[in-house]
Amino acid sequence: MMATAPAPEVLADHTGRPRAWLEMPLAYEQARLGIAFHEAGHAVLSMAYGMTIVTSKVIAWESEQGRWAVTGSTAHQAHNTRAWHYAAQCAAGELAQVQYLLAYGLWTPERAAACAADHDRELAIDVLAQFGYRLGRTRAPQDGKSWGMVRGIARRKVSYLWREIRTVAHALNERTCLTGDDIAALTGLTNPPLVGGAA
Questions:
Q1: Which SS3 state, helix, strand or coil, does residue 59 take?
Q2: Phi-psi region of 16 (alpha: psi -120 to 50; beta: other; left: phi over 0)
Q3: What is the pTM of this model?
Q4: SS3 per-residue string spanning 153-193
Q5: Based on the number of CB atoms within 10 Å of its own CB, is 123 exposed (0-12), middle (13-18) or buried (19 or more)?
Q6: By C-alpha distance, which of 95, 13, 92, 11 is closest to 47?
Q7: Digit-coded pLDDT (tens) for 106-161
Q8: Is the pLDDT of residue 199 over 60?
């Protein structure tokens, strides 16, 4: 655990605004593993859909005397990725984190609510809009999909790849940071080379 908070840009969403923080009523190690599952969900689904993973990491620090904070990040390159696959990997983090709570006997309504990752949903909406796809927050727009529909796609894939997600989450929790090649070696999935050498 770091003694000080990471740089503000690490804690910002894709627009540069600080991400929302929710109190997670769990012990530090349980919450840290939950974040590892969140990032593993993003990383494994991204790779399964043909995206390149650069790194996936858990970031923890002492927010004030005797208190801690934990978050994570997964850097990827989505070259020629289908729009709804991209959106599904955005939804996979929160779903994998809630599934972790269920699988490990930690689920409560409050803990499930604290897994909310609205920044992932907003990223999906904005990225898809750049390519002419319509993703609605609460209902499906004409010729588009709703976030609930995307979560359904992601939920099936998270269930199918649960073994891989669990393996990556535990390795990520132990090592703090994994490269895409580390994740490929752990799961047997293929991490495509970066296109143009940048993420």
A1: strand
A2: left
A3: 0.93
A4: HHHHHHHHCHHHHHHHHHHHHHHCEEEHHHHHHHHCCCCCC
A5: middle
A6: 92
A7: 999 999 999 999 999 999 999 999 999 999 999 999 999 999 999 999 999 999 99
A8: no
